[in-house]
Amino acid sequence: MPHPHLHLDPKAREEAKRRLLSAKGHLEGVLRMLEDEGVYCVDVLKQIKAVQGALDRVGELVLRAHLRDHVATAHGRGDVEEIVEELMEALKYR
What we know:
By secondary structure, the chain is mainly α. The chain is 78% helix and 0% strand. The two termini are 24 Å apart.
C-alpha cells in the first residue's frame, strides 16, 4: 500500500524549500566556476560540499517526517514490513 503524502509541517516544508534553493544557488555557482579556467580546485570542492550539506539537511527533514508520520504508526496500520522495506530501499542510496 503506497503512502503518497509528504507530511511536512509548513515550517519544515519552508525550511526544506529554502535549503534546496540554497543548494541550487551553490550548484549554479559550481557550474559557473567550471567555466573559469583560473578557478582554484579547493574553491570548487567547498561549493560542492555546500551543496551536499544542504541536500543532507533536507533529507534529514524528510526522513524525520517519515519516521514520525509513517514508521511510528505502521504497527497500528498493520504494514510494518512494507514500511521497513520502503525505508531500507530509500536508505541504500545514502
